[in-house]
Amino acid sequence: MRLVVLGGGESGVGTAILGKKKGYDVFISDFGKIKNNYKEVLALNKLDWEEEKHTEELILNADVVMKSPGIPDKSPIVKAIKKKGIPVISEIEFANQFLEVDTIGITGSNGKTTTTMLTHHLLKQGGLNVGLAGNIGKSFAWQVAENKHEGYVLELSSFQLDGVEKYRPHIAVITNISPDHLDRYEYKYELYIAAKFRITMNQTENDFLIYDADDAAISEWMENNTIKAQKIPFSLTKEVENGVYLKDDTIISNINKDEFTMSINDLSLEGKHNVKNAMAATAVAQLMRIRKETIRESLSNFQGVEHRLEPVLKIQNVQYINDSKATNINSTFYALDSMKTPTVWIVGGVDKGNDYSELMPLVREKVKAIVCLGVDNRKIIDAFENVVDVMVETTSMQEAVKVAQKLAEKGDTVLLSPACASFDLFENYEERGKQFKNAVQNL
């Protein structure tokens, strides 16, 4: 069996290692450059690869192709592979066939990284040997090859779910759905929603789907489609049966007729969206029979996620906050919503079909100045030039941070919350966040 891996990053290299271990003839092809640390791993494992090109003769003889999530379906090589009828799957689907343990799959437009890390933290504190993978950390396939875990918590993007056929998580979580990545879904919101719900398509009556019962897109989809899994809703606005809800600032979970309560004031993470993330993680922990005392402790000592509303420094009484992970409007909505002081907002990057009007009330109320950081800022300027007094365009992180420092006064906040992808000026949102932190530390 010949396995061709498109993309020589974390998921690609992990898939190649697992493929080789399982007896496949493996070839890796990357249209860009493969990083040196990955080349060393490929050499150690005696794997064949190419970079900066896709050689059709070496690819179109595959029995199966694993495509990294960053490569769009419309790229010429993917079209050629599909035309030949060769199956194209994701790392999740490939690794899943060699798995004999349960997974917990977590998706959503926002909150999925925090919810995944928080869930993993709760289960580990509860004594379970679970791996953390998917859209985060070390490759899932790589971990399956090493075979050290008794279960996995997976953060799953819509791109990863596009490439699954048989994958079935024992517990699935959908944190929320809002328009994102529409450039990859023909600008049709319903296609993106359907991609998210692929997480539950293979689930049975013995599995569980945890979801936000306040979310309009989720509710509408569930009304019009059949779901076999047992439904576990969570809500901030209404009492739900066999789920988790909020009453008088207390989280109440009544899953398996076993009530767990905790005041939201004891959560380590702030903000309404984090109450929801905590509810979803609590639901998983209760299904996995983690002790209530452990759940309570874990929710109060969790440290949060880098690049997600991460306080960096206070300089001359101005707080700098790194929210580089906000790559869509909904994420930035949460960030602006949680600002308590006048805010200088650094925004911009590659727009994925954003509608900035949703942010208008928050920008009017909270934002005193906007610093654009992107190659093309036209849409942001058109949206907000009549709403804020000061708008400045910048082309590097250092420049953006210096301008923001000049615009900020004592008691203000400087918030990097781009609402866009980072690929025009940065390698990824992590690099963007690191550059922001470095620039702030050098002020």
Verbal overview:
This protein is globular. The strands form 3 sheets. Strands 7-8-6-9-10-11-12-13-14 form a 9-stranded mixed β-sheet. A 6-stranded mixed β-sheet has the order 15-16-20-17-18-19. A 5-stranded parallel β-sheet has the order 3-2-1-4-5. The longest helix has 16 residues, at 272-287. It folds into 3 domains: 2-89, Rossmann fold; 93-301, UDP-N-acetylmuramoyl-L-alanine:D-glutamate ligase; 310-441, Mur ligase, C-terminal domain (Protein-Tyrosine Phosphatase, Chain A), CATH 3.90.190. 48% of the residues are buried. With 443 residues, it is an alpha/beta fold. It is 35% helix and 21% strand. The chain contains 17 helices and 20 strands. It has helices spanning 10-21, 36-44, 56-59, 76-83, 91-96, 112-125, 140-146, 158-162, 189-197, 216-224, 272-287, 292-301, 329-337, 360-366, 378-384, 397-407, 429-441; strands spanning 2-6, 25-30, 48-51, 64-67, 88-89, 103-107, 131-134, 152-155, 171-174, 208-212, 230-235, 244-247, 250-253, 260-263, 310-315, 318-322, 343-347, 367-373, 390-394, 413-416.
Give the tags:
443 residues, nine-stranded mixed beta sheet, Protein-Tyrosine Phosphatase, Chain A, UDP-N-acetylmuramoyl-L-alanine:D-glutamate ligase, single chain, Rossmann fold, 35% helix, six-stranded mixed beta sheet, 17 helices
